[in-house]
C-alpha cells in the first residue's frame, strides 16, 4: 500500500511539474485595460521625422504597411494596390507594381514581402499569384501559387512563403506553408469560421527566427513552425476577457449569410467590446493594438508589455496627445504613421530640428513617418 501511495504521489508531482513547465513555456501577459497616463518619454529615447514626399506620382491613399530595407522606406498602399519606395529622407524613388493588363501588371495585390534568399520584392495577389520584382522595382516574373479561395497576407520564412487566406468552407485551411522552390503547399493549418477572420488580415509577425500568428477575436498568439503550431503567448485582461462564443459565434464553423453583418453590428454597438488589430514583439516588449467600438480612429489603443519587469502600458494617446499608428515594429524602433492633424501633438515631443522638417506641410500632403527609438 505504501508503495502504491508513493507511486501515485510521484505521478501527481510529475503531472504538476509538467503543467507548470507548460505554463512557463507559454507566457501569460496580464494587463489591465484601465487607461493609463503614458508619456512618450516612458517608452522612447529619441524621435526622428521622415516627411514622405508628395507628388502625383506617389500620392498615398490608404498606406497600411511599411517595410524598412536597403536604407529606404517601402510603403504599401492597400487602396492604390502598389508599393512606393522612399529614400532615408523621405524623397520618392519609384512605384513598384501597377494595376493593368500589361507585363508585370495585375488586378489587385493585398500584401508585400521581401524574399530573404535574394532580396526580391513579392506582391501577393488574391487570385493565386505572386508578382516578383528585383530590389530596384524591375519586374521579374509572375508566380502561380496553389489554388486558394482568397489570398490576403504573406510572410517570408526562409525557404518558404507563409500565406493567410479567407477559407470559403469549414474544411479549408487558412494558413499555407508554400515552398519557394516547388511553389507547392507543404503544410496547412487553421480551420475556422471565415466570418471571424476577415477583419485586418495582417496575421503574422516574425521575432528572431520564429513566426507568430494571431486572429482578431482570440487572446492567444500562436508560434508557427514547419511541424506544428502551438500557443506562443497569451494576453490576459482579467475581468475584461471575453469569448466570442459568448456572443453566439462559433470559432470553428461559419454561420449563415447574416452572421458577418451581425458581427459588425455588435462591434459598432460595443456589445463585443474590442478586438485585436495587431500583435508584434521585440527583445524589450510584447505589443498589441486593440480596437474598441469598431472605430480605428477613436477606438485605437496600444499595449506595450515590458518583458524585463512585466510592466504594461495601456493607452489611446500619450499625455502629450500623440496617437501612435504603428506600421512597423523591430528591436530598435517602431514607425508611426502621422498626418497633418497630428502635427500639433508632435510639436510637444519633437526637438526643433526634427519638427522643422514638417515646415510648410499641408492637409494635401502625404503622411509623415515618425521613427520612435526604444529606450
Number of helices: 5
**Strand arrangement in the largest pleated sheet:** 1-20-19-18-17
Percentage of helical residues?
Answer: 10-25%
**Based on DSSP secondary structure assignment, what is the total number of beta strands?**
27
Question: Can you summarize the main beta sheet?
Answer: 5 strands, mixed
Give the N-terminus to C-terminus distance in angstroms. Answer: 61 Å
Radius of gyration from the CA trace? 22 Å
**Strand-pairing-aware structural class:** mainly beta
Relative strand content: 35-45%
Uncertain stretches: 1-23
Explain what you see:
The structure is a single chain. With 375 residues, this protein is mainly β. The chain contains five helices and 27 strands. A five-stranded mixed beta sheet has the order 1-20-19-18-17. A four-stranded antiparallel beta sheet has the order 2-27-26-25. Strand 17 and strand 18 (210-213) form a beta hairpin. The chain is globular, with a radius of gyration of 22 Å. The model is unreliable at 1-23 (pLDDT under 50).
Amino acid at each position: 500500500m505504501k508503495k502504491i501511495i508513493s507511486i501515485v504521489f510521484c505521478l501527481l508531482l510529475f503531472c504538476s511539474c509538467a503543467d507548470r513547465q507548460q505554463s512557463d513555456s507559454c507566457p501569460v501577459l496580464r494587463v489591465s485595460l484601465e487607461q493609463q497616463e503614458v508619456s512618450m518619454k516612458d517608452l522612447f529615447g529619441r524621435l526622428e521625422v521622415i516627411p514622405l514626399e508628395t507628388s502625383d506620382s506617389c500620392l498615398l491613399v490608404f498606406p497600411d504597411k511599411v517595410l524598412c530595407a536597403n536604407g529606404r522606406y517601402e510603403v504599401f498602399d492597400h487602396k492604390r494596390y502598389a508599393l512606393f519606395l522612399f529614400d532615408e529622407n523621405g524623397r520618392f524613388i519609384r512605384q513598384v507594381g501597377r494595376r493593368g493588363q500589361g507585363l508585370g501588371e495585375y488586378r489587385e495585390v493585398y500584401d508585400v514581402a521581401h524574399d530573404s534568399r535574394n532580396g526580391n520584392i513579392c506582391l501577393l495577389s488574391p487570385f493565386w499569384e505572386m508578382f516578383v520584382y528585383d530590389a530596384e522595382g524591375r519586374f521579374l516574373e509572375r508566380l502561380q501559387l496553389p489554388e486558394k479561395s482568397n489570398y490576403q497576407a504573406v510572410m517570408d520564412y526562409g525557404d518558404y512563403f507563409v500565406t493567410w487566406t479567407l477559407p470559403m468552407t469549414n474544411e479549408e485551411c487558412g494558413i499555407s506553408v508554400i515552398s519557394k522552390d516547388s511553389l507547392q503547399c507543404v503544410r496547412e493549418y487553421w480551420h475556422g469560421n471565415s466570418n471571424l477572420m476577415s477583419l485586418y488580415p495582417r496575421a503574422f509577425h516574425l521575432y528572431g527566427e520564429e513566426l507568430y500568428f494571431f486572429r482578431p477575436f482570440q487572446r492567444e498568439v500562436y508560434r508557427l513552425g514547419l511541424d506544428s503550431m502551438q500557443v506562443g503567448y497569451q494576453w490576459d485582461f482579467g475581468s475584461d476577457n471575453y469569448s466570442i462564443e459568448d456572443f453566439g459565434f462559433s470559432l470553428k464553423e461559419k454561420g449563415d449569410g447574416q452572421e458577418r453583418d451581425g458581427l459588425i453590428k455588435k462591434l459598432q454597438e460595443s456589445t463585443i467590446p474590442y478586438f485585436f488589430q495587431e500583435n508584434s514583439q521585440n527583445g524589450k516588449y510584447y505589443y498589441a493594438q486593440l480596437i474598441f467600438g469598431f472605430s480605428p480612429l477613436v477606438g485605437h489603443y496600444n499595449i506595450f508589455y515590458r518583458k524585463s519587469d512585466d510592466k504594461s502600458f495601456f493607452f489611446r494617446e500619450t499625455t502629450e496627445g500623440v496617437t501612435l499608428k504603428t506600421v512597423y515594429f523591430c528591436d530598435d524602433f517602431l514607425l508611426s504613421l502621422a498626418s497633418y492633424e497630428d502635427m500639433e501633438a508632435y510639436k510637444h515631443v519633437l526637438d526643433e530640428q526634427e519638427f522643422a522638417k514638417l515646415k510648410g506641410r499641408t492637409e494635401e500632403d502625404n503622411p509623415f513617418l515618425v521613427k520612435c527609438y526604444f529606450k
